[in-house]
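Appendix B, Record 12. Input sequence as logged:
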Amino acid sequence: MTSTRVDLTKFAWLSIAAALATITLKTGAWLITGSVGLLSDAAESVVNLVAAIVALVALKVAAKPADKNHHFGHSKAEYFSSAIEGVMIFVAAAAILVFGIQRLLNPQPLEQVGIGLLISIVAAALNGAVAVLLIRAGRRYNSITLRADGQHLMTDLVTSIGVVVGVGLVWLTGWEILDPIVAIAVGINILWTGWKLVSESTSGLMDESLPKETNARLREILASKTSDQVTFHALRTRVSGVRAFMEMHMLVPGAWTVKEGHDAMEDLIDEIRDEFPDLHVTGHLEPIEDPRSYEDEHLDR
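Logged structural output:
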């Protein structure tokens, strides 16, 4: 995770520009050839444009600081964008399947295939370059919106490759039925990508915990500080967009002064944040001798 939240909207603007360019190119390729595969490819690029606009809005909302009505910030807005993009991918896949089945039942000859393929290859290369950039930026800045948008463009690249191969085979063999078959196959693949995006965004909205490896390391740190006088329980973690949270209860002797307990807690939090700079850590002190301190042990996972 990065310790500084940078302006990510520039990536969304790049995605919008790429979508506009590919819509123009793919629509031209479809008009030239009459290929249902190229038409489906162009339709998905329209979805890409809408998704990029949604991503831009989500990133702007997520970047807002905490306020009196949103004490933990607005970072979960990114999950809504990811869910919307997943649904849009479903819509694009459904459209591709419908077009493909219609053309499968009524095959039609293609025209000026060479020019159409060249245009589609240029559009695919553009989408691929932007997709890689967005996915890398999403991983670097821990942004589910950028990752989702990049994955969306990557599915568009897969679509374009499949369509180019299908249309190319029709051109070489004269088998017109290959055009809709490839379109249908690509549509099914895109459905799977949409499902993964919706699943990821749902997990985020449900306050999914940090990765198992991170939780295990946090438990190791707490275990290293455990002694006859100090112990821990009720460790909980969650992810909210680009922000990560940890809560735990620290049990210390009731005879300790407030300063002694506070110093021990702050030293521990400093050590945790040295390893996980962006982790927001909250600790609760409890007297180790009080039976009520153990009523929340069930929170341990």
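The mean pLDDT is 81.
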